[in-house]
Amino acid sequence: MNPDLSLFDPFIQDILPWLTVLWQAALALLAAALLYVIGSRVLRRLAAPNLLPRTLLQHALRPARWMLAVFALHLVLRGAADSLYGAAGLRQAMGLALILVLTWLALNCVRAVADVIISMNPADVADNLDARRIRTQANVLARAVMVLISIIGLSAGLMTFPDVRQFGASLLASAGAAGLVVGFAAKPVLGNLLAGLQIAMTQPFRLDDVVIVEGEWGRIEEIAGSYVVVRIWDERRLIVPLQWFIEHPFQNWTRTGSQILGTVSIWVDYRTTLEPLRAEAKRLCEAAPEWDQRLCLIQVTDANERAMQLRVLVSASDASLAWDLRCKLREGLIAFIARNAPESLPLIRAEVTGALLEKAA
């Protein structure tokens, strides 16, 4: 008894065209692979002498490999017959994949440009003010552009679905109310995005700037898309929204330079001779590597019924060195007074009358 093969005719009619498409897809992928290998080698050789093309190529090679493969499959499916079973769905999938890969490529290129700008402006030098300004702008602007590219890519990917387009068209009638709702919901996100752009352009602070935020001393460690990380002196991290810096005052100790003045306050008795203290402060500063040789001064800044207050004003090249210098001066001057003139330390004076002496006896 011979089996009836007519039952398989529809199945065979669906499979045979797909075999042709699969064969074409294999040839297209092979051609894309050869193009990638040859093109990447040629481009590496051409880009080797220059930093920007070399970095762009390093960031773009991986998404470019996937882009060539997806583009090759996309061309094959566009040439397939519309009556081919499942072809429409695969075309849509390849179109979505192509948009996602192009978005990935654009994000990598933006990151490459930012990395080149940062590498060309190292911050580990003595005078790094301009470098920190450029690095801050590069980081913040790159993040803003990457967010914009991501939004555009996601929107383009969603628009490949016909139902999404129809849904969007049906919402146009209520766009006013929806816009208000979305606006209020996205206010923190949009506020931080605009604050980031404003910070990048106006530069109220830069990476590695010394700032006082909420009473905490620290350095700007990272500027993200919606917040700033402040590395506090005791290695804690303070996370501050970008918009906070636009709406609140804060101190920036390295806005135009890192040089700073430091003070040391000491209370001494009225009988203290100041010239030996001034000479000792000068000697301590000259022996300290933290001093930048700009200023070393002792002044009487306050006085009360018990003692007078001396302020030692010294200079250093940055805030960290100024702190260490202040500690050294405070310790050295107190030791000098205790060793050479202990009577100059603050005293409590009292007048003892004869009645009190008789009572004590």
Q: How would you describe what is shown here?
A:
The protein has 361 residues and is an alpha+beta fold. The chain folds into three domains: 12-167; 190-252, SH3 type barrels; 260-344, Alpha-Beta Plaits, CATH 3.30.70.100. Helices cover 60% and strands 16% of the residues. The strands form two sheets. It has a five-stranded antiparallel beta sheet with strand order 4-3-2-1-5. Strands 6-8-7 form a three-stranded antiparallel beta sheet, covered by helices on one side. A hairpin with a 4-residue loop joins strand 7 and strand 8. Helix 2 runs antiparallel to helix 3 (87-119) and helix 9 (274-287) packs across helix 10. The longest helix has 39 residues, at 9-47. The model is unreliable at 4-9 and 171-180 (pLDDT under 50).
Task: Give the gist of this structure.
The chain is α+β, with helices and mostly antiparallel strands. It is 60% helix and 16% strand.
Largest sheet, strands/sense/barrel: 5 strands, antiparallel
The percentage helix is 55-70%
Overall spatial form: elongated
The tally of helices reads 11
Give the low-confidence spans.
Answer: 4-9, 171-180
Number of folding domains?
A: 3
List the helices and strands and how they pair.
Elements: H1 9-47, H2 51-79, H3 87-119, H4 129-158, H5 162-170, H6 175-185, H7 187-202, E1 210-213, E2 216-223, E3 227-232, E4 237-241, H8 242-247, E5 251-252, E6 260-268, H9 274-287, E7 291-303, E8 308-316, H10 319-340, H11 354-360
Helix pairs in contact: 1-2, 2-3, 3-4, 4-7, 9-10
